[in-house]
Design brief:
The complex is a heterodimer of chains A (about 270) and B (about 325). Chain A has about 270 residues and is an alpha/beta fold. Chain A is built from 9 helices and 10 strands. Chain A has 2 domains: about 200 residues, Rossmann fold, CATH 3.40.50; about 60 residues, no CATH class. Chain A is elongated and about 75 Å long. Chain B contains 13 helices and 18 strands. In chain B, helix 11 packs parallel to helix 13.
Chain lengths: ~270, ~325
Amino acid sequence: MIHLFCALPCEAETLIQHFKLCEIKEFELFRLYQSQDKNISLAITGIGKLNAAAAVTYHHACLDTSSSDIWLNIGIAGHANISVGEACLVNKITDNQHKTSWYPQILFKTDCTSAALITHDTPSTEYQDALFDMEAAGFYQMALRLGTAELIHCLKIVSDNQEHPADKINADSVKKLIAKHMTTIEQVLDSLKPLSEELRSIKTQPEHYQTLIEQYHFTQSERLQLVRLLRQWPVRFPDDDIMKFVRDIKNGKALNKQVQGKLAESDFAIHD
Amino acid sequence: MINTIYIEKEIAEHPRTLEILKRFPDASKVACERYGEIFNRKSQNFRLQKKQPALILAKKHKGMVLATPKQYAIGADHNYYFSHMLNCLYDCRYCFLQGMFQSAHYVLFINYEDFIDDMQTSLAQHKDQAVHFFSGYDCDSLALDPVTNFTEEFLPFFEKNPQALLELRTKSTQIRNLLKRDPIQNCVIAFSFTPNKIASALEHKAPNVEKRLKAIIDLQRAGWLIGLRFDPLIYTKEYEKEYAELFTRVFSSINLDLIHSVSLGSFRLPKAYFRKVEKLYPDEKLFSSPMEEEDNNIGYPAEIRNGMLEFCKDIILEHIPSEKFFPCHDSI
């Protein structure tokens, strides 16, 4: 699943239209949107890092996110000398108040400039050689508790710089800046999807796990052992159905023992 | 290729840092305070990062030279290891680094001078006694040598200190820096081997057996001493045939007089590392091998382990004298 976060409605509007997202009316604390297939969702966080962090938490609680999901903060930011309209993928986020930094892991090729970003608590017009915004640190810090650094990113479109200060920004110009980069946003998401899918595949419970724990009693350590055995079975016996093999078993402990015995007794080849 | 380089501010202007950065003009450079901010953070995934590791240039502040576990000695009473790098270019599925580190990025400690100072201190503690220093526990010693210039910078210290011996543990064929200079007799280039089919299944991105052998032959011709490391031994049902073929190939290809040492060890990992790697690669066949827990390690059951070790030891000792043989297990 993909979770998008924007501070302002004008940053979100183009994304909502592009991904055909509908507002989920039952959630009122933050405005949440979701695609019909539920694969893409969006939250409007409001301004500031506390709002951003709260929105991430709320989003997680409402939509039951997973640790293999993609989290993307999209919005506008200032920079001393990067041209207005340029899209930047953030490679370092610093909370200006606490001087703590985080490093989103960019593992894919991108046409975007990558740049450091500083999150301020109040609007700033002191341009530096870094992007600045008011949300990324809150977003990232909280999303990192729920996901992994390779799949949590901030994409910022430069809205103002020393030559073009922020006073000329309005809702309409923001919408246009975001709209101009829909392809870039799609490219970033397309690069992240295979990573997310790979992570999902290794984090998903093995096949038959749920059925077996509902059918038999397993202690906590027996459940961990069962997970390992259910992972090993298809690797060792890709053509054999484990459910047939354990059909007449009386309890969870005996099931683990029987599967373990079969794995131990069978020939093992590390390669084909 | 390196796309991102993190640079600790403290060593940003170090000549070695500047030299390395010149090699990667297109990489994104990101300043950081300490490498641990990136490398040690939770909520990152080793498996995903291994697809595109970044380079982290850092300074090592302490613990540069550490005592080696006793079973890894190759003939000296005083043994130390040091790691100028953390993590490896290769992606061997049995490697403990996947379980030990949160991150797959390469950390390069560029303050070589401080490592050498610590080695000098260690040497001074054992006056007139042989002291062995092992490189390649936490990285491959040679794989990034063209970038790090590691051998060029460290070998002069050993040249001046014949009391010390350096082991460079590797699977790499990056031997140009070694061939460029005169060999020294207190440096052992120690190559790890597993049989070809096992290597293909488990040693991703590493040079194959033939390429490693070619590197050995070239090094021996230039006068360098070679170590052979059959560690970890990997169990497979036809291990006898596969290891016998490997030994035949290796021992018939190289100059046995220029073998410094041969060591042997069976696959084992600390339990916590094993469980972590198993979760990273749940579909990996290696982790569905017959394994059991013993003394907080996970490895092959004693019957399999001892059978493999005995089998391999017998063949190895047909080729080299026992004083050059160093098993990493007490059981043989």
